[in-house]
Amino acid sequence: MMCLFAIRAGAALCSLLVLSFSYRGYALSLNYYDKTCPNVESIIATAMKNAVAKDKTVPAALLRMHFHDCFIRGCDGSVLLDSVGSNTAEKDGPPNVSLHAFYAIESAKKQVESSCPGIVSCADILALAARDVVVLSGGPTWDVPKGRLDGRTSQAAETRSLPAPTFNFSQLQQSFSQRGLSTEDLVALSGGHTLGFSHCSSFENRIHNFSSTNDVDPSMHPGLASSLKSTCPINNRPRNAGSNMDPSPTTFDNTYYKLILQGKSLFSSDQALLTSPKTKSLVSKFSSSQDAFYKAFVKSMIKMSSINGGQEIRKDCRVVN
Ligand code: HEM
Ligand SMILES: *[C@@H]1O[C@H](CO)[C@@H](O)[C@H](O)[C@H]1NC(C)=O
Ligand SMILES: *[C@@H]1O[C@H](CO)[C@@H](O)[C@H](O)[C@H]1NC(C)=O
Ligand SMILES: *[C@@H]1O[C@H](CO)[C@@H](O)[C@H](O)[C@H]1NC(C)=O
């Protein structure tokens, strides 16, 4: 098999990517739509630019949506399917409070369909959109390998296999390694938490009744803990209450790693990156070099977004053909 990608990397990375690209049987390529839908990337980039101009929360939503898609059945657009009859789809499963902006992908799909009907998968549109929103937030850019197929199955119960914000390091490591992702990928991809917002429920384990001896997680900065406690009281809490992931939630930067070192990250799973020497040193490295973070993020995004597994090119991202 050839190495199809013009990434700025050595042969070792290239062969590693080829291995993961062919996971479940087919390879992705950078020039996949060159003949069949040459304008696909510019159509999607314009659609994303317009969506983000109207709603600053779209980038965080789509980056997270792509992560969820890839972690369940591979990046096959299963997260985009609607519930049908008695089948509850992933998007209506438990961690659904924060998945939103599906309309941005649906509208990009409509525009792509009018230019090249039946050619581009919803899974590819989501992967390209995830790249575009990182760029629109001031982050790095990269070439996205394409050729994903859309899946025909989406089950709410499977969202239970997503990593939880209460996970410790070994649980996180296991969740990532089950998908062919390394601890470096774990640290780099967690940097997605530079964008967006979290509801109280995702970090309340750390601020109320943390353990039999501590009401608050002792690894959390006391100032942050008291401010989160007032935003997220046990009772009478507004349904949408929560906190931005960092003070610059629409800018893709390395602030997230600086906050972890100060005990100011939101989730146990963020703080857990300090509990193994290897991940701790990566957190330090990314906190002091945004460039190192960007390079690692790009490499890991290409790996994560190449976990594939679909069967068809859906006509409508919400329903199977
Ligand atoms: C390492 C394991 C991960 C865990 C445990 C985790 C957990 C979470 C949780 C609990 C939320 C908040 C949901 C809410 O309460 O609204 C969240 C938000 C988010 N996550 Fe993660 N996540 C992980 C990895 C990732 C990865 C790999 C990415 C992308 C590369 C990502 C991107 C995001 C983004 C952008 C948001 C903000 C969403 C928004 O504002 O709409 N996360 N994550
Ligand atoms: C989210 O999931 C919960 C629990 O599975 C469910 O009761 C609720 O209806 C879902 N909400 C949405 C907006 O789909
Ligand atoms: C991580 O959590 C799992 C499950 O709760 C537990 O069995 C394990 O001992 C924990 N590991 C560490 C290092 O705390
Ligand atoms: C805190 O946890 C203890 C033991 O798990 C439980 O008995 C108690 O009701 C909890 N308190 C609150 C306020 O949830």
From TrEMBL:
Superkingdom per UniProt: Eukaryota
GO terms under biological process: hydrogen peroxide catabolic process; response to oxidative stress
Site for Transition state stabilizer, residues: 64
Sequence positions that bind heme b: 193
Role played: Removal of H(2)O(2), oxidation of toxic reductants, biosynthesis and degradation of lignin, suberization, auxin catabolism, response to environmental stresses such as wounding, pathogen attack and oxidative stress. These functions might be dependent on each isozyme/isoform in each plant tissue.
Reaction(s) catalysed (UniProt annotation): 2 a phenolic donor + H2O2 = 2 a phenolic radical donor + 2 H2O
Subcellular locations according to the entry: Secreted
CC terms in the record's Gene Ontology section: extracellular region
Annotated source species: Heracleum sosnowskyi
Family: Belongs to the peroxidase family. Classical plant (class III) peroxidase subfamily. Belongs to the peroxidase family. Ascorbate peroxidase subfamily.
Protein name, as recorded: Peroxidase
Keywords: Calcium, Disulfide bond, Glycoprotein, Heme, Hydrogen peroxide, Iron, Metal-binding, Oxidoreductase, Peroxidase, Secreted
Binding residues for Ca(2+) 2: 194, 246, 253
Binding site residues for Ca(2+) 1: 69, 74, 76, 78, 90
Needed cofactors: heme b; Ca(2+)
Uppermost EC category: oxidoreductase
EC number(s) reported in the record: 1.11.1.7
